[in-house]
């Protein structure tokens, strides 16, 4: 069996659909997970879809992905702007890493405009709502098989 794509979600994303839907949309994380799994299946990819509010857990999953995954799609939430530790873990990844943000951080507060995770990412998708996750899966599929 081929390695899955790890789709990792950071703090407060378990509140999607409830917390500030005017910014983050009305889709729940579970609904996004179903859509991502279906899109990945269309590309012949499997998904491991996880969420944690704890920085250390996200670091552990990023390290686990190094040996068990073929790529990572990561919405680090608020840890984007604060976690050098997550950045350090992701710098060890030797395959595609696509960072996703539901909102456009460049249209928001100044502190949201810098992401440590972006320094390790192959690419960043932001401001596209839940569709950004699907675009990230499409990007990963292309990066894994560019001749496709």
């Amino acid at each position: 069996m081929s390695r899955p794509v790890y789709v990792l979600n950071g703090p407060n994303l378990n509140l999607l659909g409830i917390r500030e839907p005017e910014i983050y949309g009305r889709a729940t994380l579970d609904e996004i997970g179903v859509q991502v799994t279906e899109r990945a299946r269309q590309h012949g990819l499997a998904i491991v879809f996880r969420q944690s509010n704890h920085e250390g857990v996200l670091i552990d999953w990023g390290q686990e992905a190094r040996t068990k995954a073929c790529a990572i799609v990561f919405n680090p939430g608020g840890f984007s702007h604060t976690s050098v530790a997550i950045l350090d873990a992701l710098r060890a990844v030797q395959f595609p890493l696509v960072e996703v943000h539901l909102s456009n951080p460049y249209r928001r507060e100044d502190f949201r405009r810098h992401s440590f995770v972006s320094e390790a990412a192959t690419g960043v998708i932001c401001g596209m709502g839940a569709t950004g996750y699907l675009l990230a899966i499409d990007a990963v599929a292309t990066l894994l098989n560019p001749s496709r």
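Strands lie at 5-9, 47-51, 71-75, 97-101, 123-126. The first strand starts at residue 5 and ends at 9.
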